[in-house]
């Protein structure tokens, strides 16, 4: 489902210029940016090194994360969509089965498949560039691994939209298409920040989500936790979640696909 048949080539170029300016202006995150990101996500952000794209008002739309976190863990998801209005709009597309539709088209449309593979390569190159700017350099553990299902399928539209907003139009065809398809709920030309997240009180300073219980555990400890849950469920205790007697302190508060 092409998204821009009704506009001229000049319109596309103008739109491209606007998106690129949003992605490039004030790339380095300020304390205010980090505060806003934490409020948008409802948890403290970690290892954000740039703002990939901004709202017309200046607030972050996309957080850019270093390819290696400060604790040494490789992190392939470079561009993380943060704005609640956009994430909600993209979730509507996912709920409507758009990811399956797009994945099916990749198997039958050679041009789309080639453009999507090029987006994958562009993502890898951009991640290396971010790593150089952030001082982490190239991360060999994630060589060839991009995000969102690239280069052969669609697993996460949020990742593709984040990439498209950060890179500008013409780089990720399915990210661009998704941006067009959420136009009833969000467009780059308007600000949707008012009331989109809690601006009162202190920004989140602790991550209480369940994944923090397993961060930093060894593979043996993780296996023990899974086995304990299995035994508990078999015994009729769905809340059972026993682990090692003295689990190590979590190394960080971000799972492999979250900042």
From TrEMBL:
Region (Disordered): 1-27, 213-259
Biased segments, Low complexity type: 233-244
Pfam families named among the record's database cross-references: DUF501
Superkingdom of the source species: Bacteria
Feature: compositional bias, Polar residues: 1-10
Xref: InterPro entries: DUF501
Protein name stated in the entry: DUF501 domain-containing protein
Native source species: Arthrobacter cheniae
């Amino acid at each position: 489902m092409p998204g821009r048949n009704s506009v001229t080539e000049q319109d596309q170029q103008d739109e491209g210029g606007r998106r690129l300016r949003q992605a490039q202006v004030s790339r380095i995150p300020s304390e205010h940016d980090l505060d806003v990101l934490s409020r948008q996500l409802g948890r403290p952000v970690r290892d954000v090194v740039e703002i990939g794209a901004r709202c017309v008002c200046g607030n972050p739309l996309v957080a850019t994360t270093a390819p290696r976190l400060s604790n040494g863990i490789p992190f392939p998801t470079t561009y993380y969509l943060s704005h609640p209005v956009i994430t909600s709009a993209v979730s509507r597309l996912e709920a409507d089965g758009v990811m399956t539709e797009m994945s099916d088209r990749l198997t039958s449309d050679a041009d789309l498949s080639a453009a999507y593979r090029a987006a994958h390569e562009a993502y890898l190159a951009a991640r290396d560039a971010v790593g150089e700017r952030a001082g982490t350099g190239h991360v060999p553990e994630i060589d060839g691994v991009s995000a969102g299902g690239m280069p052969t399928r669609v697993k996460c539209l949020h990742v593709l939209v984040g990439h498209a907003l950060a890179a500008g139009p013409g780089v990720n065809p399915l990210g661009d298409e998704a941006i067009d398809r959420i136009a009833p709920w969000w467009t780059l030309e308007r600000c949707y920040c008012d009331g989109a997240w809690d601006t009162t009180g202190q920004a989140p300073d602790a991550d209480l989500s369940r994944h923090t219980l397993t961060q930093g555990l060894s593979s043996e400890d993780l296996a023990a936790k899974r086995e304990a849950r299995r035994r508990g469920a078999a015994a009729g205790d769905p809340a059972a979640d026993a682990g090692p007697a003295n689990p190590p302190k979590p190394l960080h508060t971000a799972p492999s696909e979250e900042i």
